[in-house]
Amino acid sequence: MGTSFGARPSRRRSDVFRTSARADSDTSQAASSAADAGRLRSTRAGSWEAPRAFGSPLRPELYAPPRTMEEQAIEREVLRGAMLESLRREPPSQYVAFRNNVAKVLAERGLPVEGVAQGMEPTLRRLDDRRFREIMWQLINQGVLVQGIDASNDQWPFLSLSEWGEEYIQAGGPDVYDPDGYLRDLARDRPLDDVEQRYLSQASAAFRADLPDAAAVMVGAASEHLLLLLADAIVANHGTGSASKVAKARDRPALRLLTEISKYLEPRRANLARPLAESFETTFLGVANVIRASRNDAGHPALGHVDRDQAFVVLRLLPVYRQWVYRVIDSLPV
Length: 334
Fold this sequence. Notes:
It is built from 13 helices and six strands. By secondary structure, the protein is mostly helical. The chain folds into two domains: 76-171, Arc Repressor Mutant, subunit A; 179-331. It has a two-stranded antiparallel sheet. Helix 10 (254-265) packs antiparallel against helix 12 (280-299).
């Protein structure tokens, strides 16, 4: 007899029982998994076993305890710092020597290396090897390191510092080749505001990409922002007389604003802290003009261009200038 239109086909009772049993099994397994999720079962002190469902481990890697420092790769900026310190102490002659020298620095700083526990010379872990090679080739591409040491050994695996590299590693201060590290070092003195963050992150990134004109323009913009902050603080604390001229110059070219701020501060220098007063010409006027001139050269085709050395200088000078400006702002009114 056929099935009428719209009626469900009949099912055997055994099929229904099998379906119900399977559903109950799935529900039970899901409940067991949910109960075990996020929980580690301690079998004995210091030993852990992943939760089990029906006798099988539930993806043990999801339930493993947090990885220790020995199980993680050394952070990139930490490794780069150790590599630069190694270059300061002993310029390498070969790749292997450089690698071993870096391992010694890491060991001195209490960072994980291989060999020390066995009484051997420290060596880099395989876990850190790729990151080490990436940073080393960055240093080569940036002109800090070059392949070869002399005319007889002018190819890989020989390595040496370039003339530029010798100056760079001895300079100290914020690392202009490391955008994140450069900003982090600046923020240690005073947190960066949004404008500084935008301009200076681009400045350091442009320098690292061998775009000195772009770097100089961004440093100049950050410098002008600091000048505007100083002008606002002067007007807020002393809005009459020469301070009113500072207010009027705020929307004029940077050189005009710099001149008016200088006129305001000059007769008040004696009221500033001695380090600020003594560095008025060199740090405030001198550095500000160097940065401004570099920005103009980079931003105006008729004025020439900025080379890498000039961009390096303004990136290194800006932290000193920034510190001076903020110290004066903190001292107002004077």
